[in-house]
Amino acid sequence: MVSGTVDVTQELAAFLRTRRERLDPSDFGLPSRRRARRTPGLRREEVAELAGVSTDYIVRLEQARGLRPSADVVEALARALRLAPDERAYLFGLARQRPRDADKLATTAAPSLVRLVAGLSPLPAMLMNHRYDILAWNGEMARLLLDFGTLPPSQRNAMWLCLMHPGVRELYADRERVVREGVAHLRAAWAAHPEDQALSDLIAEFITRDEEFARLWGERDVKVNARGRKVLRHPELGKVTVDFETLTPLQDPDQLLVIYRAADEESRSALDGLRTR
Q1: Sheet of 238-247, strands arranged across
Q2: CB neighbours (10 Å) of residue 194?
Q3: Which residue numbers delimit the HTH cro/C1-type domain (predicted)?
Q4: Which among 61, 115, 125, 173 is most buried, taking Cβ atoms within 10 Å?
Q5: DSSP at 172
Q6: How confident is the model at residue 32, as a pLDDT?
Q7: What's the pLDDT tens digit per position in 30-63?
Q8: Helical segments of the chain, H only
Q9: So where are the chain's domains?
């Protein structure tokens, strides 16, 4: 029976027991029947040895006696129990810990996501990580905003372009609002990824080089803006108004899939004309 709330101590205990009991001792080079095993799987002392902790510690965890294992211990248990990635993440969540590799940021897009971005054509689309690094884009987005492929990778960052690139600086009719929302997103990302030194360095660069960013950063606004409207002043098409939607791939939760749609008939005609160029 499932109650309305989760007792994480009990669930942690039950999860560790079930993962231990499903393991085959022969997979670890252990004798399968040195003496009769009363329960399936590995013994507690065997898991303790594999994880580098005491047997008593495993006993107390499996008996839900109020322990909260550290991130290092959770990682050791995940390796000892040969947990799949989703199971490992679940164990860290139950222990209220954060994996030490949680801030390892993808600097390239998975091939399936690259194909997805391309397949969203004729809608302009691009994929970013939480730093706003642009990882993938389709032709429509390149023709609408900028051909990102002509830039060095260090400049393929949406906030960098909005602050530093002359063409992009002039692209947004309501640039101050766009920058404000971007700063609020970066502050949320910065708090969620405290070990991401590259993000901290990027923010420090923006504060040093751009007075507007420094002022907005000092206001400490926090907001993740997943949808909205932008008015663009395209050098060839004139005024183009787009609605944007930001989605998160389930297996890549720190990545952002941004999709533009024309907000009115005039903008739809403009985007249709852009595709034929």
Answers
A1: 134-137, 125-129, 255-262, 238-247, 227-234
A2: 11
A3: 34-88
A4: 61
A5: B
A6: 59
A7: 765 555 556 678 999 999 999 999 999 999 999 9
A8: 8-21, 44-51, 55-62, 71-80, 85-94, 111-119, 139-144, 158-164, 166-169, 175-192, 197-209, 211-218, 265-275
A9: 8-94, 111-275
**CA end-to-end distance (rounded Å), the chain:** 61
* Exposure of 30 in the CB half-sphere (CA atoms within 13 A): 18
DSSP of 97-110: ---TTTT---SS--
pLDDT digit string, tens, across residues 79-131: 999 998 889 988 988 898 877 765 566 678 899 999 999 999 999 999 999 99
User: In CATH, what number does 111-275 get?
Assistant: 3.30.450.180
| pLDDT number for residue 225 | 83
Q: Which residue has the tokens 């947990």?
A: 83
Structure tokens at 12: 């942690």
SS3 160: helix
Give me the pLDDT at residue 33, please: 55
CA angle (198, 204, 206) in 5-degree steps:
105
Whole-angstrom Cα distance, residue 68 to residue 89?
A: 16
The token pair that represents 36 in the structure block: 């009769």
What's the confidence (pLDDT) of residue 1?
45
pLDDT in tens, 128-163: 999 999 999 999 999 999 999 999 999 999 999 999
